[in-house]
């Protein structure tokens, strides 16, 4: 086999294949946003109620 004709391996781009819907710095998750404990508990309780209702 002629390994010289195979070419060099492609170098990685070091970038994700797609953008996350809640990536840091986006509208849904801005930079330096600290969620208070009350907001966290409210969100967790709402999620628990949504699961319980199903």
Describe the protein.
The protein contains one helix and no strands. It is mainly alpha-helical. The chain has a domain at 17-53. The protein is elongated and about 65 Å long. The model has no long low-confidence stretch (mean pLDDT 81).
Mean pLDDT: 81
Query: In percent terms, what proportion of residues is strand?
Result: under 5%
Rg, nearest Å: 23 Å
- Please give the count of helices: 1
Q: What can be said about the biggest beta sheet?
A: none
Distance between the termini: 61 Å
What is the chain-wise order of helices and strands?
Answer: H
Structural class: mainly alpha
Find the count of extended strands (DSSP E, 2+ residues): 0
Helix amount: 25-40%
Poorly predicted spans: none
* Outline: elongated
Compact summary:
The chain is 31% helix and 0% strand. It is built from one helix and no strands. The mean pLDDT is 81.
Topology record:
Layout lengths: L36 H17 L1
Q: What labels describe this entry?
A:
54 residues; 1 helix; mainly alpha
């Amino acid at each position: 086999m002629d390994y010289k004709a195979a070419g060099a391996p492609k170098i990685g781009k070091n970038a994700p294949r797609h953008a996350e819907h809640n990536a840091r710095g986006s509208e849904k998750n801005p930079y330096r946003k600290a969620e208070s404990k009350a907001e966290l508990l409210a969100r967790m309780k709402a999620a628990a109620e949504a699961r319980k209702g199903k």
